[in-house]
Prior knowledge:
By secondary structure, chain A is α+β, with helices and mostly antiparallel strands. In chain A, 53% of the residues lie in helices and 16% in strands. A six-stranded mixed β-barrel of chain A has the order 2-3-8-5-7-6. Chain A has a six-stranded mixed β-barrel with strand order 12-13-18-15-17-16. In chain A, strand 6 and strand 7 (179-189) form a beta hairpin. In chain A, helix 2 (39-68) crosses helix 10, helix 8 (263-300) runs antiparallel to helix 17 (493-528) and helix 12 (367-392) runs antiparallel to helix 14 (412-433). The longest helix of chain A is centred in the last third of the chain and has 40 residues, at 712-751. Chain A is elongated. Chain A starts with 19 loop residues before the first helix and ends with a helix. The relative contact order of chain A is 0.11. Residues 9-17 of chain A have low confidence and may be disordered. By secondary structure, chain B is α/β, with parallel strands linked by helices. In chain B, 35% of the residues lie in helices and 28% in strands. In chain B, the strands form two sheets. Chain B has a six-stranded mixed β-sheet. In chain B, helix 3 (104-114) runs parallel beside helix 5. The model of chain B has no long low-confidence stretch (mean pLDDT 89). Classes of the chains: A alpha+beta, B alpha/beta. The interface between A and B is large, with 43 and 45 residues.
Amino acid sequence: MPPPVGYLWTDDGGRDVSGLGLAWRLARRELRGGLAGFRIFLVCLALGVAAIAGVGMVRSAIEAGLRDQGVVLLGGDAELTFTYRYATEAEKAWMAGVATQVSEIVDFRSMAVAGEDRSLVQVKAVDDLYPLVGAPVLDHGTLPEALATVDGVPGGVMEQVLVDRLGMKPGDHFKLGLQEFRLGAILLRESDNATAGFSLGPRVIVRTPDLAKSELIAPGTIYETHYRVVLPAGADLAALQTEAVARFKDAGLQWRDSRRASPGVQRFVDRIGSFLILVGLAGLAVGGVGVASAVRAYLDGKVATIATLKVLGAESGLIFQVYLLQVGALAVVGVVAGLVLGAGVPLALAPVIRASLPFPAEFALYPVPLLEAAFYGVVTAFLFSLWPLAVAQRQRAAALYRGAAGRIWPRATHLLVMLGLAVVLVGGAVLFSGTYMLALGTTGGVMASLLVLGLAALGLQWVARRVARLGWLRGRVAWRLALAAIGGPRAEAVPVILSLGLGLSVLATVGQIDSNLRAAIERDLPARAPSFFFMDIQDDELPGYLARLHGDPSVTKVETAPMLRGVITQINGRPPQDVVGDHWVVSGDRGLTFSDTPPVGTTITAGTWWPKDYSGPAQISFGADEAAEMKLPLGTRLTLNVLGRDIEATITSFRKVDFSNAGMGFVMSIDPAAVAGAPHTSISTVYAEPQAEAAILRDLSKAYPNITAIAVKEAIGRAAEALSAIATATAWAAGATLLTGFVVLIGAAAAGERGRVYEAALLKVLGASRRRILASFALRAAIMGAAAGVVALFAGAVSAWAVMTYVMDGTYQFEPWSAAAIILGGMAATLAAGLVFAWGPLAARPAQVLRSQE
Amino acid sequence: MNDTILALKEARLTLAGNAGPVEILRGITLNVERGETLGLIGPSGSGKSSLLMLMGGLERASSGSVMALGHDLTALDEDGLARFRRGNMGVVFQSFHLIPTMTALENVAVPLELAGVPDAFDRAAAELKAVGLAFRADHYPSQLSGGEQQRVALARAAAPRPAILLADEPTGNLDATNGAAIMELLFALRDRHGATLIMVTHAPELAARCDRVVRLADGRVA
């Protein structure tokens, strides 16, 4: 017997049918329609996730390489470093007591001379035990063979770049100081290269005993000694570190061990990795715009279905669930595709990446970066889908016969959820990157850019609507059509300007920062910077040295200052880290000078310089800016360890120290009596005409072989090289962002194709030629591209200004070439995307198109 | 005994238009008795479809009251109206409005699933058989003719045994043969289930089969 009429109805509003089971059943049926509408959604999400996963994978590979190779990178289980001196007997005895093997290395800068050619080098003088772990890779033979003395001439190995620079071949001779060496082999790879090549001079390795006659390690010379130790199995590194630091920290000991063999490199990789991931996040935000557009377009096509379901009794909650589940399922597909791509590409290219990196990398499937990328992908997908979903669920049943309602706003709860997701995304970025200022800055910048771009898009539509009605446009059909299309309902302006604009903003920021840094290094700095730094000048060499320079008319200025190195071990009797944290002034040993009177040009900002021939309690003049950063007032007591001796001195004056022109800058200047008798050398800066530089270098190196010269231009070149590598990596990440932006553009162009087909058909009926229609399509694309470019330029300039001013502590200057490229690039991209989808509309026959619309 | 199933009192419908508010219905007062077949006729733009949608809770009256089965539809929100329709109203449209991604069987099963009926698919299959389309159960709407699609829509409207069947020009998109077949089915369903049928039509022969005909003109009962 059939059930009675109205049997399903209950007065409490019917049964609860909002269960996920039904929602999933309906969602599955909906998805049968295929993924055609979701291609852009999937590509955007996959690209964004892949970029982040890829960067994360490479970073993890390097971190694993540094960790696994820790002992080899360090050349032992632990390393104790002393500045300016060898270990004392007590220190050596302690090392011998805890270690099974101890190897001593002396590291310093010097000049290698071969014939008339000379070059700054980083010398590593080693003992017979070197290396305790690992082995350097040479072009032939072993290290002992290469360093062996042949016919009374000891051997040395040097890097290929230096061999080329000095025009040498194995067997040729070169000099370090007064000592002659034979090039025993070419150093292809240093196994214990913890600095990863970030040094001013290429590497030379020789035996320490062979340096005895070089006169390079004289009192006052700047050098470091490293004691690598091999510890018994099971040794407690943390406990040994605590003990060593407790015993010898005040004597200037620095400890490293295989747990973090290369903290500098690790920090660098960490920072660059985080930065690139944040750039990738900007890419994902661009993808988010594509996700939102795709979901909106999909749901626009579902208005009838949603209204039908509502007529049949579906509540808005169920509608929301049905489409949320679909988006969720697709988000999973997109994220997984992105993870496969992001993990697969680095794994496939592992040999190439490994060969191009100066540090070890262990490529494998690392779950953490993949989880991080998946997290960003999932949150972004939901954040950007939520608005169209929330709007769709509010679609009324009446839409079935009256068409979709006008502007519908999401409920307040959904807006709150979106805000929550944004917070989760930013929080995740902060947590994962570990650099909260950078993460907040980047995510804040991206959100602000999205807001500005959104407003700009709406503004452009408003302007287009008004301009299209102006009298002077009558008769200019292509312009009027283009403007009407931009300003009209359901125009592409918003997604196009958002996606392309954000992609271009990232590129504009990178471009402006890169141009500014290059300008600062290549143009501004050399104009004010000296030609040379000369170091390790002994007191008895100073008169001759100065005579050579003062007698040269091409030399415009020479500055000299005595120099020692010291470590601040206490501030007002307390460990410095407790007082000023990890400020760079207390993070290691610093240069220190002394002078009876303030050197010419010194500006004392507070306090007074000590009197001439002062011999009371030690006084220090401290850099004014650094003191302000460290919040040190006049009267602060500093304990300095200079050559193992503690000197307690009071800050009695502050003075301006300018580090920006690569000239001489000492944070600390002490009264001469405090360091009387301490061995020291002088440092000197020489400002000379470029054409005289080679002769000055040749003369001074010949006369004083122990003096080390740093050619500032060369050093700047090295810095520019390092910068260029970083800029290239950043440009790649920004390129991924732009690629995603282009995909979104293609999506927007494809979504608008149907409308353009209809428009073109109508225009043809009304007598428009294909050329005129094409001109209208091209115009609207170019206008939108230019608008996106202009806004991107503004956003990029503001971001670059913020980075240059607050992060780099430099000055910002607008770089017009990079800017012009951004605007033209924007126009080219929209034109390309727009015109690709213009052929269909132009080719379609009007009768067919118009009939199909009926 | 007087058994009013639908009662409209001074019901008005005003919608926002580009050139200002547009009055679609201008104060309709109308009672429909249980089991009655009511025909709504009138020229295009007279407000027939809008009145039908007001009765089905698909539109909300701007003023006045719409009582259905003792419930004040103007007091229910969009979700409340959806829940109310679930067991009480079946709607048949001129353009069928089948869900294109679902088969005929699934389309008929949807209102039953929404109502939480455990054997929704068995019941849906029986309804499809009743309209002579059991052999088309697994076909998608795009694989069905217009007449077949409207038969599926009829089966879907009747499946939850609603007290009120609303039909908005159900034969408007069909040729004469298919239109006649659909009307036979619609009246047969009404007779079998004893539902109240309210139908918008332009066809005089259909209007003639109704118990009562209400003519609308310019948003008012003429």
